[in-house]
Amino acid sequence: MGRGYGLFRRPPLLHVAVDEGVGPAVLMIHGIASSSVTFENVIPLLTGAHRVIAIDLLGFGGSPSPEDAEYTIEEHVAALARTISSLRLREPFVLVGHSMGSLIAARYAAARPRLLRRLVLVSPPIYLPPGAMGNRVDRTTMDLYLRAYEYLRTNKEFTIRTAAGLARLSPIKNLLDVSEQNWRAFVLSLQNSIESQTSVSDLAAVEVPVVVVYGSLDPLLTPSGLRVIEKLRGVEVHRVDGGDHVIRPRMARVIATAIGRA
């Protein structure tokens, strides 16, 4: 487990940004440099028949940013697990993760199968070590993604400026936030939870049904990563033509349908 959360310290409680509706619980976690606003197009489709809970991840949105956190996948999951436990949900729930949140959700689901009814992963950035890939094109593509992420986390001014420009173009207000306030959480989450990940083995260990939803125009996904998870047992994949990394209304409807079938 990460350095900050050993045997003598409890992980922090995360900010529960949304808790609306009545019915079977659906719990949502967003991706890096974002917040619960990620799901603003999904939530209204569900609250008529579900209790919808959206949680801000460690270091982002309204959640705490511990000084000694390394933002590993273990630390993100530990904080999420304590927060979910505090909600005292009585029945198994659907867990939805977007982007980095899908990697955290997969690790949580692998360790706690009895708590879930279904796992829904939206736009999961599945990256494999380039050296582990046999196809030269896949190897080169994966290496380019990892180099791009390294550039982003080692060029602070460029990254903050670029993120601000993308945020202005986003159809969802406050969707993307990379700033001085969350820079450490952004850099370490990118390095320790996205670039260094075990999502394929986590998903292989998940015992509940898994639904993957992604957009055909998503620039953050690699075809090789998607091909790997498509072959895993119990994984159902839905491609949204014309969709990108943002959960727009069309993708929101696909996600709501996947949740409603649980």
TrEMBL record:
Residue ranges occupied by any AB hydrolase-1 domain in the UniProt entry: 24-246
Keywords: Hydrolase
Phylogenetic lineage: Bacteria, Bacillati, Actinomycetota, Actinomycetes, Micrococcales
Recorded GO MF terms: hydrolase activity
SUPFAM superfamilies: alpha/beta-Hydrolases
TM stretches of this protein: none
Keyword Hydrolase found: yes
Protein name per UniProt: Alpha/beta fold hydrolase
PANTHER family tied to this protein: HYDROLASE, PUTATIVE (AFU_ORTHOLOGUE AFUA_2G14860)-RELATED, MONOACYLGLYCEROL LIPASE
